[in-house]
Design brief:
6 helices, Rossmann fold, binds NADP nicotinamide-adenine-dinucleotide phosphate, alpha/beta, 15% strand, globular, single chain
Length: 232
């Protein structure tokens, strides 16, 4: 049996990943701040015993530890961890960027992914060939940044990419592949209605790319749409 953990699983890309993983026969542990979600209840009903919805706030070490302890009751191994939970503070302008926005973004987007992965290490090492997918963004690319846009988001996702490199260095020898993936611009609360990619299409592309990750992909930054290597 293959087990996946998805953070930020109550809406957007995370929720769609949960639905598609279940559709592909996976057992899923969905981590969310809000666990009472109609679609998750419906999915649990449609896939009896395959979906476990558990409270998870990746900004809290205590919540991360409680979540992983509860996951360890359900399964002794995790084949896939998707660090999907993320925040984007909109409307930031140079001259009024707030420390609170920077700190919250770093806590959730970068530290949260590293700490959740760290806490899951024992479960990941018990899988035959585990993968950790960090959901990043093109906006984290240092090389492609030439406008002052969403600094809290861009800086924290660049830090997430560093977490990918650090985790790959540590976990590749243990047979765990860690990579950063850019899902494209997606129609979610974060991406907005004007985004070109529907959430189900984006989740399919992302999941296909994640499930195809091999040892050669460890520490890479990849576009899920076409598998292209992205510039750090
Ligand atoms: N949409 C795009 O165009 C796009 C592009 C590139 C990358 N991404 C990345 O893709 C991922 C998913 O984005 P999305 O578009 O689906 O965004 P979304 O619709 O805004 O959903 C974000 C998810 O993250 C969760 N979350 C936020 N803070 C959390 C915390 N402290 N603990 C646990 N969960 C938390 C949210 O839960 P709550 O409901 O509790 O807030 C929600 O489930 C993010 O990492 C984002 O940066 C998105």
């Amino acid at each position: 049996m293959s087990y996946a953990i998805v953070s930020g699983a109550n809406r957007g890309i995370g929720l769609e990943l949960v639905a598609q993983l279940l559709g592909r026969g996976w057992r899923v542990i969905a981590g969310c701040r809000k666990t009472q979600v109609l679609r998750l209840t419906e999915l649990a009903g449609a896939h009896p015993g395959h979906l476990h919805v558990m409270p998870l706030d990746v900004a809290s070490e205590r919540s991360i530890n409680a979540f992983v302890a509860e996951a360890g009751i359900v399964t002794d191994h995790v084949d896939l961890l998707v660090n999907n939970a993320g925040v984007l503070v909109s409307g930031e302008r140079y001259g009024s960027v707030a420390a609170k926005s920077l700190i919250e973004s770093f806590t959730v987007n970068a530290a949260g992914a590293l700490l959740l992965t760290q806490a899951c290490t024992a479960l990941l090492t018990q899988a035959e060939s585990a993968r950790v997918a960090n959901v990043s963004t093109m906006m984290a690319s240092l090389a492609q940044t030439d406008t002052f846009r969403t600094p809290s988001y861009a800086m924290s996702k660049a830090a997430l990419n560093m977490a990918t490199r650090l985790l790959a260095a540590e976990l590749t020898p243990q047979g765990i592949v860690v990579a950063s993936l850019h899902p494209g611009w997606v129609q979610t609360d974060m991406g907005g209605a004007g985004a070109p990619l529907a959430v189900d299409t984006a989740a399919t592309l992302l999941l296909d790319r994640i499930l195809a990750l091999g040892t050669d992909d460890a520490g890479r930054f990849i576009a899920s749409e076409d598998g292209a290597e992205l510039p750090w």
